[in-house]
Fold this sequence. Notes:
The chain is of the alpha+beta class and 140 residues long. The chain contains 7 helices and 4 strands; from the N terminus they run βααβααβααβα. Residues 59, 63, 93, 111-112, 114, 117-118, 120 line the site of adenosine-5'-triphosphate.
Amino acid sequence: MAIEKTFSILKPDAVRRNLTGAINDRFEKAGLRIVAQKRIQMTEVQAQKFYEVHKERPFYGDLVKFMTSGPVVVQVLMGEDAIAKNRKVMGATNPANADEGTIRKDFAESIEANSVHGSDSAENAAIEIAYFFAGKEIVE
Length: 140
Ligand code: ATP
Ligand code: MG
């Protein structure tokens, strides 16, 4: 297995409830290292572009509204098999279907307000990291 970097967002529902430390603890206990992190207020245009693949889905407008409803924490996580490992620690998109002990099972409020985002492929991880971070902000 290779050492990878993946892109992560602590979504507005998690930040609003002051859960950033509790969620970061899950990442670190799983062996993922936070090599970049910042708190931002996503703009409407940023959120629209980030979720562009879902543009035709019925939930797109609400999702953009949710992602801009308050501050988020954007992160780069690094470690062995980081992309798949992060998805595993996050759990299924819908918390009702998420495995016991996953972030979404324990913290998500709904299928939309599901506390975290994690890249789903190496290609998307590279695109998403570059969308939010300059190279020099990532310190390994
Ligand atoms: P993410 O991309 O945020 O890591 P994911 O890959 O598990 O999550 P996607 O299918 O890419 O899920 O959907 C992106 C996001 O859109 C979900 O995380 C969730 O916030 C929202 N979403 C997905 N499906 C629905 C739905 N049926 N109703 C409302 N919101 C949804
Ligand atoms: Mg996704």
